[in-house]
Amino acid sequence: MVETLVVGGVVLAVLVVANLLLTLALVGRLRALQEMVANQVVLRDPALPQKGDTVGRFEATTVEGESFTDAALREGRTLVGFFAAGCRPCASVRKQLLESPPGVPLMAFIEGDPGDPDTVALGASLKHMARVALLSEGDSVTRAIKQAGYPTLVLVDEGVVAASGHYLHEVLT
C-alpha cells in the first residue's frame, strides 16, 4: 500500500514539474511575441506618395470633357482616387465611398478602355459624387501623383500629399 502511494507521489511530482516547465516555456514564447509586436514597423507600401510630397504637373480631361489640372489641387483638400474595372479592392473602396461619402471633393481616375462596359459602369457609379477621368497608358497624372497600383487614394491638401494609402481608413482618419 505504501509502495503504491510512493509511486503515485512520484508520478504526481513528475507531472507537476512537466506542467511547470511547459508553463515557463509558454511565458518565454509570449514575451518574445510581445517584443516582436512592440518593435514591428508599420508596414506601408513604399511606392505610395509620401506625406509632404508635392503633386507634379498634369492635365486630364473628365468624361464630361472638362479640363482638370494640378492647379485644381492647389486649393483646399481633395481626395484623389485611382481605380480599375475588375479590381476587387477597388470595388470595396468604391462601395465604401458610395455608402459614406468622404466629405471632401473627390477626383476619380479610372484605368480602362473607354469602350469597356465595366469601365463605363465604374465611372458612372462614381460620377454623381466625383469628377471622373479615364487614364491612358503613360498618363501624366500617374507620374504627377505617383500612383501605386489599384486602388490608390491620395489626400491632397493645397497641392501637397497629406495622406496616401490603398484603403479609405489609411487616408481619412
Tell me about this structure:
Helices cover 41% and strands 21% of the residues. It has 173 residues and is an alpha/beta fold. The longest helix is centred in the N-terminal third of the chain and has 38 residues, at 2-39. The mean pLDDT is 91.
Total helical elements: 5
Mean pLDDT across all residues, rounded? 91
Please describe the biggest sheet, giving its number of strands, its sense, and whether it closes into a barrel. Answer: 5 strands, mixed
| Unreliable segments of 5+ consecutive residues | none
User: What shape does the CA trace take?
Assistant: elongated
Q: Total strand count, please? A: 7
What is the CA–CA distance across the termini? Answer: 72 Å
Calculate Rg over CA atoms. Answer: 27 Å
Q: Can you write the helix and strand succession as a string?
A: HEEEHEHEHEEH
The percent of residues in helical segments reads 40-55%
What structural class do the secondary elements suggest? alpha/beta
In what range is the share of β-strand residues? Answer: 15-25%
**Order of strands across the main sheet:** 5-4-3-6-7
Write the layout of secondary structure elements.
Layout: H1 2-39, E1 59-61, E2 67-69, E3 77-84, H2 88-99, E4 106-111, H3 117-127, E5 131-135, H4 140-145, E6 152-157, E7 160-165, H5 168-171
Short overview:
The chain has 173 residues and is an alpha/beta fold.
Features:
five-stranded mixed sheet; two-stranded antiparallel sheet; alpha/beta; 173 residues
